[in-house]
Specification:
The protein has one domain: Alpha/Beta hydrolase fold, catalytic domain (Rossmann fold), CATH 3.40.50.1820. It is about 30% helix and about 20% strand. It is built from six helices and eight strands, in the order H-E-E-E-H-E-H-H-E-H-E-E-E-H. Strand 3, helix 2 and strand 4 form a beta-alpha-beta unit. It is globular, with a radius of gyration of 17 Å.
Length: about 220
C-alpha cells in the first residue's frame, strides 16, 4: 500500500495547448519525474458522443499506469472540452452527429496527424493507443515511425481497418467478450498482432479499467 501511495504522490498531470493548423487542441501530459526524456505514448479517445474525451475512464487508467515508464499525451478532439470548434454556436452533439451522418472524419484525422507532428516537441518516438473510435482515427493518422499500435475494442465493422494488415510495427488488439455495441467480425486481422479478449465485460470495461491498463503496459514493456 505504501509503495502505491508514493507512486500516486509522484504522478504529474499537466494540461497543455496543442497547436494545429485549424486551431488549438486541448491536451494533457501525464508523467513522473523519471519518465521524462523517454519514448512517449499518445492516447486517442473514443467517439465524443460515447464519453470520448481525455477524462474517459479507460484513457485515464492507461495514462496513469503507463506514466510509470513513459510520458503520456492524451487530448480532446475538436469541439470537445477546450479544443477549438469552427462553429462556436453549434452544440457538440450536433457537430459530431453531422460528421457521423457524412461518415467523413478527414478533418479529425488531419488534426491527429498534426498532433503527432507537434509531439516531437516532447519525444522523438511514441507508441500509439486508441480506444474504440480512437483506434480508427489513430490508425489512419499513424506514421511509419510509430513504435507500436494498440487498439482497444476497435470498431472493425463500422470503419475501414484494412491498414492493420499493412503495419510494420508491433500491434495489440484488445476485445471485450460481451461487446454487443460493435460487430467485430468483418475485418481480417493481421497474423502478427497480439490479440487478447477480456472475459465477462462489455465495450465500456466498467470496473475492469486497471486490467486493460496492465495488459497494455505488459505489451509495451515486452518490446
Amino acid at each position: 500500500m505504501m509503495e502505491r501511495f508514493i507512486k500516486l504522490k509522484a504522478l504529474f498531470c499537466q494540461d497543455i495547448t496543442i497547436s494545429c493548423k485549424g486551431g488549438n487542441l486541448q491536451g494533457r501530459l501525464t508523467y513522473r519525474d523519471d519518465t521524462t526524456g523517454r519514448p512517449g505514448v499518445i492516447l486517442c479517445p473514443p467517439h465524443p458522443l460515447l464519453a470520448g474525451n481525455m477524462d474517459n475512464n479507460i484513457i485515464t487508467a492507461i495514462a496513469e499506469t503507463l506514466a510509470d515508464t513513459f510520458t503520456v499525451l492524451s487530448f480532446n478532439y475538436r469541439a470537445v472540452g477546450k479544443s477549438f470548434r469552427e462553429e462556436t454556436e453549434l452544440p457538440l452533439f450536433e457537430y459530431w452527429s453531422r460528421l457521423d451522418s457524412r461518415n467523413d472524419f478527414s478533418d479529425i484525422i488531419e488534426d491527429t496527424r498534426q498532433l503527432f507532428d507537434w509531439s516531437t516537441h516532447l519525444f522523438t518516438h511514441f507508441h500509439l493507443i486508441g480506444y474504440s473510435f480512437g483506434s480508427f482515427i489513430g490508425l489512419q493518422a499513424l506514421p511509419g515511425s510509430a513504435l507500436s499500435f494498440t487498439a482497444v475494442t476497435p470498431p472493425l465493422a463500422e470503419h475501414d481497418f484494412r491498414r492493420l494488415l499493412e503495419l510494420s510495427c508491433k500491434s495489440l488488439l484488445i476485445f471485450a467478450e460481451q461487446d454487443n455495441l460493435l460487430n467485430q467480425q468483418k475485418t481480417r486481422l493481421p497474423a502478427t498482432a497480439v490479440i487478447h479478449e477480456i472475459a465477462g465485460t462489455d465495450h465500456f470495461f466498467l470496473q475492469r479499467e486497471q486490467e486493460i491498463a496492465d495488459r497494455v503496459a505488459t505489451f509495451l514493456l515486452s518490446m
